[in-house]
Amino acid sequence: MKKISSAIIGFGIGRKHFEAIHRYKNSEVNIVCEKDLSKLKYLKKKFPKIKITNNEDEIFFNKEINLVSIASYDSDHYKQILKCIRYKKNIIVEKPMCLSLKELKYIKSLILKSNLKITSNLVLRVNDLFLDIKKKIKKENIFYLEADYIWGRKNKLYGWRSKIKDYSVLLGAGIHVIDLVMWLLNKKPRSVFTVANNIATSKTRFKKNSMYLLVLEFPGNIIAKITANAGGIYEHFHELKIFTKNKTFSNTLTGSVTIDKNSIKKNSSFYPDKKNRKKLIHNFLDSLVQPKKKHTIQNKDLFNLMSVCFAAEEALKKNKKVKIKYI
Ligand SMILES: NC(=O)c1ccc[n+]([C@@H]2O[C@H](COP(=O)([O-])OP(=O)(O)OC[C@H]3O[C@@H](n4cnc5c(N)ncnc54)[C@H](O)[C@@H]3O)[C@@H](O)[C@H]2O)c1
Q: Which of 48, 96, 98, 144 is within CB 3.0–4.6 Å of 103 for a Cys-Cys bond?
C-alpha cells in the first residue's frame, strides 16, 4: 500500500486518531463519521475538505478507503470490525475490540483468512517511563508486580458507559494495565482470579462493577495484582510496582523511583507522556506501508490480551480461579 486513505468513526478520542493519521507521511483522513449532530456541524465547519457524515456506510462502500479507525462506543466495535473485514479495510480499533469471547473467536477466524491488519490503541506501550522500565527489568529476577488503573474520572461512567448493555470497567480500563504487565514481562498468564464490587457507584446510574481486582499467575510463578478502579477519588493514573530480587521499580503519585539496597533514585523518564501516544498509530501506519516492518502490537498480542480479559470475567462469575485458554 503506497497511500493510506482513512476514515474515523467517532470523534471523542477519535480526535486523537485524527491528529495521529492526518498528514502523517502518506496518510490522509478522508472521511469522519460522527453521530452527534452538534459535533457534525462543528466538524463540517472545521474541516471543509473532509467528508463529514453520520452514515458509516459512506466509509465502508468507499473503495478508496483502506484504513478505518474505530473510536465509537465499545458496543459498536464488533459490528464495525466485521464490516471492515467484509469491505477490506485495515483496522485501528479502540479497546476493547469486542465484548464477548464468541465475538473474539469470530473476529480472529476472519482476520486469519484475510490479509488485513488490525491494531488497538494500547497507548501505555509507547510511554517513555514504561519503555524505560521494560529495558531495565530485562535481566531482573521479578517475583511480583502490581498495576493499578485508577480512573479518577467517575463522571465519565454516567454517559454512554452507563447505557450500553455489556460495558465493563475491566474491558474498558483494566485492559490497559493487563496489557502493560503482559508486555513488560513478555509472558502470558496461566490463570486468573477476580473479585469486584460497585460500592463507589452503587447509588448512581452506573449499575455495573466499578472496582475490579485480578490476581494473575505467570509462568515461573510470577504473581501480578491488577486493579481497575473507576470509582476512586484520585488523579487519572497508572500506578506500577515491580519487585525483583534486588530492586523495586515504582510509579506512584509522588513520583517514579528505582529502589535498591543502598538508594532510592528518581526516574527521569516522562509520565504520563501523552505526546508520545501518537507513536503507536504512527508505527501501525508505517507497518501498512512497509509490510516488513512489524507493528509494536502483533495480532497475537491482541487476541491473547482479550483472552485474559474474558477469562477474568469468567473467574468473577464462577468465583474461582480460571485457567486461561488462549484462542
Ligand atoms: N485508548 C485509550 O486510551 C482510550 C481513551 C478513551 C476512550 N477510549 C475508547 O474510545 C472509545 C470512545 O470513547 P470516548 O471516550 O471517545 O467517548 P466519547 O463519548 O468522548 O466520544 C465518542 C464519540 O463517538 C461518537 N460515536 C459513538 N458511536 C458512534 C457510531 N457508531 N458512529 C458514529 N459516531 C459514534 C459519539 O457521538 C461521540 O462523539 C471507547 O471504546 C473507549 O473505550 C480509549
A: 98
